Amino acid sequence: MDSFDIAIIGAGPAGLFAAIEAASRGAKTLLLERNDEAGKKLLLTGKGRCNFTNAGLTAQNLQEPFGSKGRFLHSGLASCGPKEIRRFFEERGLPSVVERGKRVFPRSGGAETLRDLLVREALKNGVVLRTDLPVRKLQKEGDAIVAAETAEEVHRAKRFIIATGGCSYPATGSRGDGFRWARELGLAIVTPKPAIVPIRTAELWSHRLQGLALRNVTLTLLREGKPIDRRFGEMQFTPFGISGPIAMDLARSVGEALEKDGDITLSIDLKPALDEGKLDGRLIRDFENLKGREFSAVLSGLLPRDLIPTFASLAGIDINRPIHSITREERKKTLSLLKGLTLTPTGLLDFDWALVTSGGISLKELDPRTLRAKRWTNLFFAGEIIDLDGPTGGYNLQICWSTAFLAARAAADQ
Q1: Cβ proximity of 42 and 19 under 8 Å
Q2: How far apart are CA 393 and CA 390, in angstroms?
Q3: 284: Cα within 13 Å, side-chain hemisphere
Q4: Rounded Cα distance, 206 and 215, in Å
Q5: pTM of the prediction?
Q6: Beta strands at 135-141 and 144-150: parallel, antiparallel or unpaired
Q7: Least confident of 9-23, 49-63, 327-341
């Protein structure tokens, strides 16, 4: 039975990158994956295009995307941030391009191209990759892990890196195994919850708009009528509520708000570029210029066609109503809906729909400079299994790269 310097469990983005870094430092490295191929979940990122980092992220501006937990990432981003990961791929024939929101994508190809590059690089550096081999348990002696046990054999190593991901998209292999092992080893786990996930809403009218996308709108979460979080960009209606980038980004805040007391609502500003005064001025001009027409003529210049019947119904105005007959109060109602179309969130979809897991190995259990578990001498963690997550835009894959780099460097140099 071969014995390795480092055994890495989980061949997703964090596991693959950790394996490459460890092997490039001369460590005899084993990479174990429960799926029949490596990087299966990576193929889903960026709708297949693979938004693999965000060019605007630095070690100095961690608060905005990650909140107070962002401080934990300082060492990782200082050592392996967006510039370094872009250079890594470019030096291996995969240059990148920066798009809206400073999202970074491969200039050509996509998620499969990037995944295949990682696998090739791992094998080129001598990594032993074993797929279709689920790990059942970790064997320990004293304060060290000595082996990973599968159905077929026991894999021994001097150091171990757990990169099994969270619970999101379990069909890709993220089934929470790492959380179970961590609990058995006495490590604290922040309860895993779906993050970057669609939101359920109560209103039937929103369900009937399924498939309709809204662009350049602002979605605000309110408690007792006071805003507590908001996003700007694109969203869409679904048979159960809302989805799309800004809705899914807001989902974690929605979930947290629903766990507390209070009246929780979502408000869609359909015209965020105009304040109420300017928008009312436009309505007055449109009503005057189109006074010989029907109400639908005003709405057609403001809203997507498929939204008009529902919007008019919510405003209580027949779309065929002559504009000249619409009262000042009805115009104000139209204005109010344009600036605040209200929805009632009732919950989030489950892990089957989530892009990312919120929660995981408590940051208090880990050394932020090495990602080693403080109470175990040779156990490291990397990627989504850690209690770190951010919004869409390449932030979560950057967590994988940065934490994998630190864990692999520390494990190889130990």
Answers
A1: no
A2: 9
A3: 9
A4: 16
A5: 0.90
A6: antiparallel
A7: 49-63
DSSP codes joined into one string, 231-285: EEEEEEE-SSEEESHHHHHHHHHHHHHHTSSS-EEEEEES-TTS-HHHHHHHHHH
| pLDDT (tens digit per residue) in 272-306 | 999 999 999 999 999 999 988 999 999 999 999 99
> Interior CA angle at 229 toward 226 and 230, to 5°?
110
Supply the angle between the helices 328-339 and 308-315 in degrees, to the nearest 10: 130
Domains annotated on the chain, with CATH: 3-194+353-413 (3.50.50.60), 198-349 (1.10.8.50)
Tokens 């799926």 appear where?
Answer: 35
DSSP strand pairing (356-361 vs 189-195):
antiparallel
Whether 160 and 182 have beta carbons less than 8 Å apart is answered as no
Handedness of CA 168, 169, 174, 175 (dihedral sign): positive
> CB–CB of 195/356 below 8 Å?
yes
- Please work out, in degrees rounded to the nearest 5, the angle formed at the alpha carbon of residue 351 by the alpha carbons of 229 and 253: 10
Token pair recorded at residue 396: 């979560």
Block residue for tokens 């115009």? 331
